[in-house]
Design a protein that fits this description.
The complex is a heterodimer of chains A (186) and B (508). Chain A is mainly α and 186 residues long. Chain A contains six helices and no strands. The longest helix of chain A has 37 residues. With 508 residues, chain B is an all-alpha fold. Chain B has 20 helices and two strands. Classes of the chains: A mainly alpha (186), B mainly alpha (508).
Chain lengths: 186, 508
């Protein structure tokens, strides 16, 4: 059995174990804390509010356990997904097909961080226009844009275009930002 | 009466405003689909919020046109730069890209266009005849049959979407779990909101779609090399014969297009199998039956026509379970259902019996979109090569801004924007771990319908001394249960008989 297959099995076992633990936390901690069933409610009155959540967790746990048993008896070998298969068909030897890869590189982490800062801090504080400009410039730099002209002009064009479509054409209000509103008021 | 309804439906959909909307939709879809990095589902998910600002019979035709346009557009990337816009276009690469390398990119794109429109129209005609027939059957369905049908659709979708299958099923159950969040429809008590007022109305459909389909894809593509993030220049041959499909070539491909469209229609009517499977099956079938099988893989026009006719036929056939039962079979149908829900248009058997006018309007819009797709597609052949010169890094960054504006616009809530990025992150993690996101989205969409029907079944059981087995006294339920058993047996037989799958040990 090759090293790659062993690594595949180990990864699947880890996923199954973590998933089972998460399902336990969901069933025994999150559902009781997040859903309160009326004391006198039975199935003859429909279904208690927590029923669907509990049922989904039980079915998921059974699927996970079933897969564990399948792996234990040696029936299910990890294999390539359909997407991976098709990606392989379209790529030449030695070349990684684009649709095949999900790489979590430093650039991806930085991009996600920038997006989250945009959603949780820039939009509420600076508003759509200033927040989007900051995000676009940051992302373009992260993604390798070097031309100062493009770094200046492209974010302005995109932000202005989206603003024009929403605010002027569709009459939708976009976030103005607490800080910008305060500055404008002051 | 029926004839009046058909005429009324056609009159509703075929106006100059809706024609203009279809033209805009198809053109936008073709251009967006042709831009590497923007997939068809991603483009439509981003644009669904905009359709809300239009009259339903402008917004819906525009979205239908956009879908058809983006499917064709994504095939142009498969042919010209070997980057399929959707997995469904992967099979098109096999012969489309060799043709492009020979300078016959325009010929291959035109063949793909003819086959796409043929497959689309074939499956739309099947939809028009089959959906109303199936809806008549569905009228005899009660909550028990609906619960079983939804469970069947979700299970087959989960089983067939994931490899290994358990990942698809877990993804579908996660979608059901997210669908639980919000107020309980029966008791109005809060479920998994933890006191957050923003969650009381439940998770919005738009943030889910944009987050999982568009933002997660942007995050994924940020991991590509810097060279992939730049634009590419494409050149066509100067020989006019290389840039057009002759009448003889077209006639040679017609039988292939018929067979592939039939394959796509049958596969599309079943939830879960999807257009990628249809495209590869049709490609294999075309190769086996071809007079020139040796040309396949080296630039055969039949090799382009077969997968294109099949994957487009799937998109029309996917609407059969959607319009007949109200159950989407794949992500394209789920996106269209989302637009219907936002616009307040009901689908399902009751829509046929109460007022079928909107359904006839949908049929008219579909056929109109096919014609527009054909006309604009011929112009697109020349535009496509310029679309690839747009730097992808700009597109990726812009998608995030458009996603934020689109998700904010619907309810004016920053919370929805935040959800979009959180779901984008969750989608990326799922992709990284090999969990498909489509079953999650369809599980989320179907959760309220499933729960409502299950609740009604339980209430009905209380009139039979709480005996749930009463459902087997219903002929429709009994028949469906037998069909379910047969389907499960077929799935089991298929998994046993399937050729030995490539294992990870085959990896370099």
């Amino acid at each position: 059995m090759s090293r790659a297959l062993n690594a595949g099995r180990l990864a699947e076992w880890s996923q199954l174990a973590i998933l089972l633990a998460l399902l336990g936390v969901f069933y025994f901690v999150i559902v009781p804390a997040g859903i309160e069933d009326p004391a006198d409610m039975g199935f003859d009155q429909g279904m208690p509010p927590s029923f669907s959540a509990r049922a989904a967790a039980i079915v998921a746990a059974l699927i996970v356990l079933g897969r564990m048993v399948q792996l234990l008896v040696g029936g299910g070998q990890p294999r390539l997904s359909q997407q991976q298969d098709s990606a392989r068909l379209v790529s030449e030897p030695g070349e990684e097909a684009e649709s095949d890869s999900v790489v979590i590189s430093g650039r991806v982490v930085a991009g996600i961080a920038a997006a989250l800062v945009y959603a949780y801090a820039l939009l509420p504080q600076l508003g759509f226009v200033a927040g989007s400009l900051v995000l676009l410039v940051s992302l373009l730099v992260m993604l390798g844009e070097k031309s100062p002209f493009r770094l200046l002009v492209l974010p302005m064009l995109v932000t202005f275009g989206v603003w024009l479509l929403f605010v002027q054409a569709l009459g939708v209000t976009l976030p103005t930002g607490a800080l910008m509103t305060a500055l404008a008021g002051g | 009466m029926l004839f009046d309804q058909i005429l009324e439906g056609i009159a509703l959909a075929i106006t100059w405003q809706s024609l203009l909307a279809v033209i805009i939709g198809v053109a936008a879809g073709q251009v967006l689909g042709a831009i590497p990095g923007l997939t068809a589902s991603m483009a439509v998910a981003l644009l669904i919020p905009y359709s809300f600002y239009f009259d339903p019979w402008i917004g819906i035709p525009m979205l239908l046109g956009m879908f058809k346009g983006s499917l064709f557009g994504s095939s142009t990337t498969a042919i010209l730069i070997r980057t399929p816009g959707t997995p469904a276009a992967s099979a098109t690469v096999l012969d489309g890209y060799p043709l492009a390398q020979q300078g016959k990119g325009a010929k291959a794109i035109k063949m793909a266009l003819y086959a796409s429109v043929f497959g689309d129209t074939f499956s739309d005609v099947c939809l028009i005849f089959l959906a109303s027939l199936l809806a008549m059957v569905a009228l005899s369905f009660g909550p028990a049959e609906y619960s079983l049908l939804i469970a069947l659709a979700l299970t087959s979708l989960g089983l067939l979407s994931g490899t290994p299958a358990w990942k698809g099923l877990i993804s579908m159950l996660l979608g059901l779990g997210i669908g639980i969040i919000g107020l309980d429809p029966l008791t109005a008590s809060e479920r998994l909101t933890f006191g957050a007022p923003d969650l009381e109305e439940g998770i919005g459909l738009i943030p889910m779609l944009i987050g999982f389909l568009a933002v997660s894809e942007v995050f994924r593509q940020m991991g590509g090399s810097l060279a992939q993030l730049s634009g590419k220049a494409i050149h066509y041959s100067d020989n006019p014969a290389d840039n057009r499909v002759s009448g003889k070539e077209l006639r040679q491909c017609v039988p292939v297009m018929f067979r592939s469209s039939a394959i796509g229609t049958v596969i599309g009517a079943m939830p879960g199998l999807g257009s990628t499977v249809a495209a590869f099956i049709a490609y294999g079938q075309a190769r086996r039956q071809s007079r020139e099988p040796e040309k396949f893989g080296k630039g055969s026009l039949e090799g382009v026509a077969a997968p294109e006719a099949a994957n487009n036929a799937v998109s029309g056939a996917n609407l059969i379970p959607l319009l007949a039962f109200g159950i989407p079979g794949d992500i394209a149908a789920a996106l269209i259902l989302s637009a219907f829900m936002i616009q307040g248009i009901n689908v399902g058997p009751l829509a046929f019996s109460e007022s079928a006018v909107p359904l006839y309007a949908i049929y008219a819009a579909l056929i109109m979109a096919n014609l527009v797709n054909l006309v604009l597609g011929l112009l697109m052949v020349h535009v496509a090569r310029f679309a690839f010169s747009v730097p992808r890094r700009l597109l990726l960054a812009s998608v995030l801004v458009v996603a934020a504006a689109g998700s904010y616009a619907l309810r004016g809530a920053l919370f929805d924007v935040q959800l979009v990025f959180v779901f984008g992150l969750l989608g990326l993690i799922m992709m990284r771990l090999g969990f498909p996101t489509v079953p999650l989205l369809i599980g989320f969409i179907l959760m309220p319908i499933l729960e409502e029907n299950l609740r009604t079944v339980l209430l009905l059981a209380s009139t039979y001394d709480n005996n749930l087995l009463f459902v087997f006294s219903r002929p429709a339920f009994l028949t469906m249960s037998l069909l379910l058993l047969a389907a499960l047996a077929w799935l089991f037989w298929r998994s046993q008989k399937r050729r030995p799958a490539k294992t990870l040990s085959d990896s370099p």
